[in-house]
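Incident review: delayed structure delivery

Summary: a single-chain prediction request sat in the queue longer than the usual turnaround. Root cause was a stuck worker, restarted by the on-call engineer. No data loss occurred. The affected request and its eventual output are reproduced below so the record is complete for anyone auditing the incident later.

Affected input:
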Amino acid sequence: MGEPLGLTVEEAAIAIHEVQNAQAGDLLRRAVVQAGYDPRDFVAYAFGGAGPAHCAGYCQDLGVSEVVVPLGPVASAFSAYGLAASDIVMSAELSDPSSFPVAPPVLAAHFARLEADLRQALDRQKVTFHDVTLQREIDLRYSMQVTELATPVPDAEFTERTGEEILERFEEQYERINGSGAGYREAGVQAITYRVRAKAGLGFPVRLPTVPRADGPDPAEALIGERAVCLDSQTGFVPTPVYEYARLRAGHTLVGPAVVDVPTTVVVVPAGATGHVDHLGNLVLRYQ
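Output delivered after worker restart:
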């Protein structure tokens, strides 16, 4: 791949790494901004096999100053861990395109039907749930538009005021995403899909593993060697300490550049950043 471009193997690998970081950053920025938020206001969770290896590249570009690599060796299987430990979540939908607001009896009938369907579906799980919460929402859009916004519906008896309250919530969301003054109720609003989400607790606590406390912040006991590592094309290869995750303890602090070897991934701590191990074994990266 590098030869036609006049690049060495190392230079081609660095370029691939940086392109992948840029693409990941663009996807993350788009998802957050389209939801009406600023990436700089958030802490990033970098899990999976690739997340810990690439988060240093794309999070700095996004202006994210703190990243959590969750639960150390569980990082690469964090989605599976969450699947096993999370509450049961189900949803039921009903499509009934119409102008909005609609009459309160119509709202009541739609949501009563959806909630009954959900409770029957939960009963079929044959699980005793700790508690069940229901959340109502309607997908709304302005007339002649093709994209809807899932808009929360009050959990109360439906009255003539309910439709106006839902419209206000829709317009608030719309302007948060598209900018102040972007809404135009005079164009008309359409309701497309009615939805109820159910969250059912499994009734048992999630017990997260903890790691022993270190005597001090120096992670020397976890140091397993040093190797030449290239973290970006500007600095090239530099001697970089390598730590073994299993030897890190709560309170240890790594100063970048550093690499943490985990059985199923690798965590990159770039120059100018620090990595702090908390009591759960999370590695918390902070960028200057």
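Verification: The two ends are 35 Å apart (CA to CA).
Action items: add queue-age alerting; document worker restart procedure.
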